[in-house]
Design a protein that fits this description.
The protein is mainly alpha-helical. The chain has one domain (about 1-125). The chain is built from five helices and no strands. It is globular and about 50 Å long.
Length: about 130
């Protein structure tokens, strides 16, 4: 699973580099942390369909998100060398890059829209 986030970091890093940003690592690391947080939120939302977890508060969410930020900072910014990722994925063809890029976009759409959809159905329509 970590390799998926490494690839997302790699693609975001080079996207920001192509846009002439100076601190690509911070942007890429933040977006990977956001993706991980939304993935956990999506899993949590799906679990909440079958289990009543109303005691969960925003404080407990911070206990999950802050370690993710620290882990990603340590992994992707502290003594980080992008060349490892370049060597791993430099041989991709343009069609592979395009396909994986669309998969990343679809992944972000799913992890953002799923909790929203569950919330709308649950609270506005009383369906779930």
């Amino acid at each position: 699973m970590l390799k998926i986030f490494d690839y997302i970091f790699y693609r975001i890093y080079f996207f920001y580099k192509s846009q002439s940003f100076d601190i690509m690592e911070i942007y890429a690391s933040a977006l990977v942390s956001l993706a991980q947080s939304f993935t956990l939120l999506t899993i949590f939302s799906i679990i909440s369909l079958g289990v009543d977890i109303t005691a969960f508060s925003k404080f407990y969410g911070l206990l999950v998100i802050i370690p993710l930020l620290i882990f990603n900072w340590h992994r992707y910014e502290r003594n980080f060398d992008i060349e490892e990722f370049v060597m791993q994925w430099a041989g991709e063809t343009s069609s592979e890059k395009k396909m994986k890029g669309w998969l990343i976009v679809v992944y972000f759409a799913i992890i953002v829209l799923t909790p929203v959809m569950i919330g709308v159905l649950r609270y506005n329509f009383g369906l779930i």
